[in-house]
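I hope you will forgive my troubling you with a question about protein structure. I set the record out below, with my sincere thanks for your time.
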Amino acid sequence: MSVIDVHAHVFPRISESESRLLAGAGEPWLRVHRNGTGTMMSGADAYRPVTGPLWDPEQRVAAMDTLGVDVQAVSSTPLMFGYAAEPARAAEWCELVNQRILDYCAQAPDRLLPLCQVPLQDLQSACETVSKAAAAGHRGVHIGNHVGDRSLADGDIVAFLAHCADEGVPVLVHPWDMPGGERLRPHMLQWLVGMPAETQLSILGMALAGTFERLPDSLKLCFCHGGGSFAYLLGRADNAWHHRDIVRADSPKPPSAYVRRFHVDSAVFDPRALRLLVDVMGADRVMLGTDFPFPLGEQEPGSVIRGCPGLSEAERALMLAGNAAAFFSLRTEGPQV
């Protein structure tokens, strides 16, 4: 049974001097140490320790072989988005990152699918960048779930998503820049609580703003981390839509009416949670996602899908590879891309 992972990150080798393209807007770069480990840097600040597969394609493919993964869709680490930069600088930065991702994936073109990033803070530049990247060989685009205070229901971001639909470019949405504050600082609570909340906020915000009504059905859209809290609190949202006019003011349908308009990955880490997610979304809307190679990811890719109760073998095959093959328009006879 083929295995395709739609949620796997890369931080290609980018130097400190190259990161200055962003001129104070984060300036992410990679420090590689002599012992083979690395550190993601944000300017002069150490952001996170990392391991070789994040920047070394040979190590990544070896890990994929060990883990039983045939294909990964490879997207930038969200620290690299550059959304706070001036648009012209951000566009130049994205071109650099996108070329490095192409070069990285070219080391194993039958195993690694490159996903580009765009300067989402500027509509024209974002559309030009995604079109250029798709023509160069990128198989989709990876975006954050907001740009500052602008959500995915923002007019310019909706126009960008419509452009992706017109161009046939699949969109992977990743939460980032989570809420701060003292209560979320300990124990990685920004990641454990903030990330799921960010993704629920994005999906529910699109539904209640009527955004899906304005987007073509052809848009291929996937939210990471199982859609966050969305599936588990959908009943609450539907109840509010039915009983409060302020909730349904901009949406002609309850949020549950839109679950067929997007996909989610399977990164929920508990077969019971995955069972509910499949019941809400349908087995054909869930794709394997691991968050490779980070420690908070699924350490045994596909184990939750294989251990989920009540799934048929056909449903497991869809979630492990079939849905992703359709999402990215891959050939289905084996792992070749």
In short: Residues 4-12+52-327 form a domain with the TIM Barrel fold (CATH 3.20.20.140).
